[in-house]
Structure formats: C-alpha cells, structure tokens
Batch of 4 targets.
Target 1
Amino acid sequence: MSIPRNHHFVSQVHINNFFNSEKGKFFIYDKLLDNHYFKTTSKSVCSEIDLNSKYDNGNLDYISLEKDLNEEYLKYFIKKVVKQR
C-alpha cells in the first residue's frame, strides 16, 4: 500500500463545492502570481507534498497527522455539515 503524501491544506470536501459542473473545471486565482487558471480535478488544488508530515524519533511520519485530521475533522464535518444540506 502506498502512503499518500499529497496533503491538502483546504479539505477536498470544501474544494469540491467550487467545482463548475457546467464547464467541468475548478477555476483558480493565484493571488501571489496574479494568475487565473483552471484544473479539472481537485487532486492538486490547495495541496502540497508532505504538508502534514512530522518528524518522529528522527523519521519522517507521513501518516499520523493526516489520519488524525481525517478521523477527527473530516468525518465529523461530513456527518454533521454535509449531510444536513
């Protein structure tokens, strides 16, 4: 099993609410570069490789923080907020 290392700093649950289904794209504005562009998938939108990684006993841990965020935040958010819509 591969370890996911592409970590989102904005949850994909949130990102997917900005998908333009009519055009099949996410329209994005990069404020720092003053650049408008689009993506067809949320995989690389608001994400960074190894963002939620930490050092543990001298080793890089790619899993535990991402797992905690998923269990403590995303599952709660989906259960409480998304299903109430």
Target 2
Amino acid sequence: MAAQIRAREAAAQAALDNNYDTAAHAAALDEKCAVLIDLPDRITPLLTDMPRHLAEMIQDQVRNMALRARQARKVNSVFYKASLLYPDDYAPGQPNELELFIEQLG
C-alpha cells in the first residue's frame, strides 16, 4: 500500500509536469486519500496472529492516517492531500510516515 501511495503521488506530479493538468493532479491525490482510508480495513486480516497490544498499536496508527485522509477529502484541499504523510521538514528521497512506520515494524 505504501508503494500504491507513492505511485499516486508520482502520477499527481506527472500531471503537473505534463501540461499542468490540475484535474488529473487532484484526482491522483484523491486516489492517494482513498488508499489511506482503506488502509485500516486492508491490514486487519494481517493482524490476527499478532500479540493484541501490537495489533492495537498498528490499528491506531493506520486509523490516524485514514482519519487525516478523510479530513483532507472533506476540506477538498489539494495541498492537504499532497502533504499527507510528510512532516514540514521533509526532504525529497526521505521515507514518508507510512514507510517509516513499516520500517519500525520490521
């Protein structure tokens, strides 16, 4: 799912780079939000064999990401959608919040 998010972000950037297609840019970022919103449901089956405290911690983290994606969709802010998962001091090439979380679990 982290790769899906990166692919949506790349599509959004490509839309801007190619003819400044703001509609395609916004659509790709909306798809990014959809992936994040679906994240809690998609990972639930993977948590069944984990210790309860770990499964709950993972669910809490991804629910928070999903909540922020829902909020971004609600306010319909392209900026908010684009900045999901990235801190203010993010530099290109660094892992995003979801990727860092996955690394911590590994």
Target 3
Amino acid sequence: MFPRLADLGCGAFGEDAEAFGDTLREVIQDEPQTRVLSFKWQTISELKTLLAGSDADIECVSEAVLGIIPTVAPEEPPNWGSFSNLRTFWSAVLQAFESDPEVQAGKDIGPDM
C-alpha cells in the first residue's frame, strides 16, 4: 500500500541510514534531492494517506517499511537524533518532500538550474 515509503525504508531510512547523513534530520532534508519528481509526488500522496490514519496505523506501517526506529536515539552514531513520535517523524519527511524545489516548481529542474 505504501511502495514509495518502503523504498525510503530500504534506502536512506534503512538499517544503514547513518551512511546518508550526520543526523536524522539531514537525511530527511537530503532525501528528496535524490529522487525524480514522480517519486516525490507519489511519496507526498502516500505520506498524506499515512498521516490521515491513527497513531496505531502509523506505527504498524512504520514497523513494516522502516529499517530504523526514529523515536529511539541510537547509540551509534552519537548525536544522530530521534523524534518524539512516529507522526512527528513522518510529518518532517512530508515537509521535506513538499518543500523540495522541483515539487514547488511542479516540474523537473535540471542540475544546471
């Protein structure tokens, strides 16, 4: 039901998420830049659907698609960060995707722009 979120869970938010950034917030902010516009729109749609659900629904989906637990501060790497709850985590991901320049422009922006 959430294939794009599962893709994120296998990549930047997966077990080796610390390889994608110094902090969890950096990983979230950088992730949209690595995706094509259609993926971004699909992810935004999935996130809105997820966030419309209950906290129990969000927890169930998160357990299925994430390789990390974003509400628990990991021991390694130190100071990587965590979120107070899963709704806050997914809301930050949604905000990062919605704020992406390509999404804001509504079109693909080439690397030379």
Target 4
Amino acid sequence: MTSTLDRPDFAARPIHGPNEVRSALEPYATDETLALYDQQVEQASKDAIELDSGEPLAKVLSHWWDVAQVARGAIEPERRGSGREEFIEAWEAAHPGEKLDLA
C-alpha cells in the first residue's frame, strides 16, 4: 500500500529536514539532548505514518529548529509566561489576605 503524507499547514515557515535540524543542533547540544531529539523524531515519524499526516514530524522539526536558532542567537526565545515574582504577585492579588506557600 502506498500513502502520500499530507503536507503540514506551516505555509509561513520553511520545512527543515531531520538531518538539517540535527546538524544545526550539534554544535550546541549535549549527547543527551541529541538522543532526545533522535527519539522525538523517531516517534514523530511513526506517528506521521500512523496518522497519514506529516504534521507530527513537522511540529517536532520546527520546535528543534527553533531551539537550534535560539542557541545560536539567531532568534530570541519565546516568552510563554511571567516570571516567578509576577506569578506570586498575581496569585496573591487573586487571593486577598493569603500568602502563597512556596515550601
């Protein structure tokens, strides 16, 4: 049986292959990080075949490409939340009179 994988809907970004991404990571990554990368690519490849969609692999490759670009200083890391102090302040503001137990 032959299958054609759907091209993921990442039209705004170029797709980088597994070898290209791994090569970009190698100067910055530890052996453990590269092993994690290899494991995630392998699992995403299996998922892509099972789902008949290239999206799982494209997501993994896109994530690791960004990691390599951040490590090299080409892009800034995405900030996904506030820092510890902002979190504590927001929690205590939402719970007047209480202190967040950090122990």
